[in-house]
């Protein structure tokens, strides 16, 4: 039998958790990673070199690699605050930027690094050009730049992307649409709804591919609401926003965590963007999706609430096997 083809779309710290467990399964994995980050080290490198930001790609490379822990520590090492121009930059970001300059693009750099790190899956930036994220709020105000969105007080109506350094319509990276169309399953998230997942989906070619694909489209709903993005959102609200941006009810399956985060557990200083646990609206979900998988997907670590990658991937594999029958 052919290996199931699974494409995971997102960014931030969410999808690496899924990819790290998924790579241990007998599947053909493609990761499609956001390129709209304009803050921190990624933003500085992007601005200085007009490259697609390397940070989310770096985390996905590490998650999909079986590199020894020491090599991972080297790649993820972040320079100290007193290190002048290098302060705050992870070494891996600088390596990706250097190879991007050598190879002429971040796309080619990532293809080279997947071989270097012995990655069996495929990793593509969602676009080969750096993108700028625009958020239009319900009061009509527009904020430009992913790192600025959470600072505006208001509810986001919709987001869209533009090419940062030219006026052309944003395009998907080569092979991304092909991967979506040939997949047995597409996994969206987990991750920040408006700033990690949607910047990929609103690229017109990717949006159309998700509408057209015969693949099962599964969304791994966030555990916590997020300051400046999804305050007071239920799980059904998350799905509604995704489908509205896609222009059609595309989500087939939603995975929701039903395990409670212990009261006062979250380290509010370290994880200050996360507010309260996402509430459930199973009736609302049942009106738009074919199935809801509710289970204990919670992993508590270092004062934060994360998805347990093994538990999520176990359910995803059950789903994809069911489709293959």
TrEMBL record:
One of its GO terms (biological process) is regulation of cell shape. It comes from Streptococcus pantholopis. HAMAP family: Gluconeogen_factor. PANTHER family: GLUCONEOGENESIS FACTOR-RELATED, UNCHARACTERIZED PROTEIN YVCK-RELATED. The lineage of its organism: Bacteria, Bacillati, Bacillota, Bacilli, Lactobacillales. This is Putative gluconeogenesis factor. Keywords: Cytoplasm. NCBIfam families: CofD_related (TIGR01826). Belongs to the gluconeogenesis factor family. It holds the Pfam family CofD. Required for morphogenesis under gluconeogenic growth conditions.
